[in-house]
Task: structure prediction
Amino acid sequence: MVRLTTEGNEVRITAPSPDRWEDFKKLRLESLHRDPKAFLSSYEEEASFGDEVWQNRIKNVIFAVIRDKPVGMLTYIQRNRKKNDHVVDIFAVYVDSKHRGKGLGDRLLKEAIYRIKRNKGVSKIALSVLADQIPAVNLYMKHGFRVVGVLEKELRFRGKFYDELVMERLLK
Result:
């Protein structure tokens, strides 16, 4: 667990216990509602998930917590095919708008990279981000990720198309 402070409040960066799946569900649905363009999934799709789905999905989540309330999250999953199980994907990165610009995304990403590197079989971390999400792109680049491709018109939201950047960081 990593600790830092922001505005006099202690922030914990930690993996939530499985019984906090409802907190994860709430934060994930909030992220999809408040920043719908930023994610491939939609609020409507994920709001229909049953409890078992949420209970299973929390296994690879890291929270940024202030006063026991999750205000940010990041999900990472190691691929499970024999030919690409050396790759971990990062996705669903979100920090509540009231807490942005305070280093929480930076700390979430640092903690995820630390945890991923502990697995000696992993040699690459991959993620994708919309090209117009400049703060997120800059955060990833600060942590050694580089753009390796552009998926043109990958996302369509409210009748407009958006390009997605494919980014990766090699660990070995």
